[in-house]
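Module 6 notes. Inverse folding takes a fixed backbone as the condition and produces residue identities as the prediction. Think of it as a translation problem where the source language is geometry and the target language is the twenty amino acids. Below is one complete input and output pair. Work through it position by position during the lab.
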């Protein structure tokens, strides 16, 4: 079986030869081809070459589009700061306050350079590996997107104090999100992964999620035309997964390394996929032997869960991680088989 066949067999509850595995290896492709991040995160051809190197070195069952959250802020008028061995960060947001929302220029998904970079990267991944790998595009959800447009503090203050301005911003971000997702599905993405910073325990209470965020998602998700995965973004969305799970088209959740996977399963449908077990940003601190042993232990503990995927979650796998550590995850999956 190839990666796509393996994963969608798992999703459908059909037999598979071994557990699918993967990691967020967006940045890691730049390391493998020795490409400066400023070139890598602006040139779809360079990004595709980097992901081809990921595929050849690691053989994961998933390939992701650019994990470039700051790029969405840039698309709305912000500026980026590049670093030597990391993805760009936002230097300056497009606007500083809710009063400037009417001035926003909404990026056209068919012509804006930053959006075209994202879309063309997905097209190249799909053309090269759409038959053998699960292609996942990474898109900011419509509630987290304003934090990249105006800054997290300003956006959170707007939510708490100005209902009218909050609605004006969502009237921009919800339609943009729906249009972009539709384009990425058409470009070849099998699923959209949404980082969920607003939904983490560090940012929101359950009451705020239920009263504010969930109605926005209930408005947007029925209009999507494909599958979505909710990503924990380096913190934890554990407290809220039961609220998100019933949304249409939800494929599953990536869990933080400290989350209890069995307890997460008890909170969601048995059909939803759980991705997790390993922490991508700290893999470089482990030996390949330790990664392999830990992976086998996780697979053994989750063997009764028919829709568990071994995954190095968190943000991007650290640049310093030896390729042998990533290969060890695949070795463990091959050795363990289907359990």
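Target side of the pair, the amino acids:
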């Amino acid at each position: 079986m190839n990666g796509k066949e393996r994963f969608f067999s798992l999703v459908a509850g059909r037999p598979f030869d071994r557990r699918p595995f993967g990691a967020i290896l967006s940045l890691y492709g730049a390391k493998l081809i020795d490409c400066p991040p400023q070139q890598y995160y602006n040139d779809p051809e360079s990004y595709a070459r980097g992901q081809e190197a990921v595929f050849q070195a690691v053989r994961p069952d998933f390939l992701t589009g650019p994990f470039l959250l700051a790029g969405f802020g840039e698309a709305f008028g912000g500026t980026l700061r590049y670093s030597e061995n990391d993805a760009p960060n936002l230097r300056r947001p497009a606007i500083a306050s809710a009063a400037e929302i009417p001035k926003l220029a909404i990026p056209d998904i068919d012509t804006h350079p930053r959006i075209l970079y994202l879309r063309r990267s997905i097209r190249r991944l799909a053309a090269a590996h759409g038959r053998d790998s699960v292609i996942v595009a990474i898109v900011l959800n419509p509630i987290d997107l304003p934090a990249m447009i105006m800054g997290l503090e300003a956006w959170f203050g707007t939510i708490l104090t100005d209902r009218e301005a909050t609605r004006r911003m969502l009237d921009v971000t919800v339609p943009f999100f729906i249009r972009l997702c539709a384009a990425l599905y058409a470009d070849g993405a099998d699923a959209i992964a949404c980082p969920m910073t607003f939904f983490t325990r560090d940012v929101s209470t359950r009451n705020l999620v239920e009263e504010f965020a969930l109605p926005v998602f209930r408005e947007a998700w029925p209009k999507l035309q494909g599958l979505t995965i909710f990503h924990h973004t380096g913190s934890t969305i554990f407290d809220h997964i039961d609220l998100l799970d019933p949304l249409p088209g939800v494929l599953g959740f990536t869990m933080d390394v400290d989350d209890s996977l069995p307890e997460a399963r008890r909170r969601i449908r048995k059909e939803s996929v759980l991705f997790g077990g390993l922490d991508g940003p700290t893999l470089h601190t482990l030996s390949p032997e330790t990664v392999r042993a830990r992976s086998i232990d996780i697979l053994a503990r989750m063997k009764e869960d028919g829709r568990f995927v071994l995954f190095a979650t968190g943000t991007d796998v650290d640049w310093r991680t030896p390729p042998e550590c990533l290969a060890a995850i695949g070795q463990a999956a091959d050795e363990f088989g289907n359990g």
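Reference fact for the lab report: The CA atoms of residues 34 and 50 lie 9 Å apart.
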